[in-house]
Design goal:
The protein has 124 residues and is mainly alpha-helical. Helices cover 16% and strands 0% of the residues. It has helices at 90-99, 110-119.
Length: 124
């Protein structure tokens, strides 16, 4: 199945154990309740897909776009996941940080922390 366009497919409760989905376009696919143990999702576009309750033990999601994918109640033991998503709404984050009174204005490094401690009469 590698490289296929399966956008919006209904894969609910299917047995996809060990299937190679690499390089597929699978946006908004409904996998709820499916068995995808050991399946290969490397470099798959899964944006917005539904994965609630899937059995994904040993599935490989390296390089996959898992933004807005719902894995609620999924069994993921041994699954290989991509690094955390980095493309957040930076405008919203910036607004939150500017409004948060606990946000430090300068990054705390060991040197600045040491200086603060020393200023209070405590040395390390």
């Amino acid at each position: 199945m590698s490289g296929m366009d399966l956008e919006g497919a209904d894969m609910r409760a299917t047995d996809c154990r060990g299937v190679n989905f690499s390089q597929c376009r699978m946006r908004y696919v409904d996998f709820r309740g499916a068995n995808i143990q050991g399946a290969n999702f490397q470099n798959v576009d899964l944006y917005g897909s539904k994965m609630q309750g899937v059995e994904a033990d040993g599935a490989d999601f390296r390089g996959a776009d898992v933004r807005h994918v719902n894995f609620g109640g999924a069994y993921m033991q041994g699954a290989i996941m991509p690094p955390p998503v980095q493309d957040v709404d930076r405008k919203g984050v910036r607004k939150y940080l500017e409004e948060s009174p606990k946000t430090p204005k300068v990054a705390e490094t060991p040197e600045t922390v040491k200086g603060k401690v020393k200023d209070k009469g405590i040395e390390r």
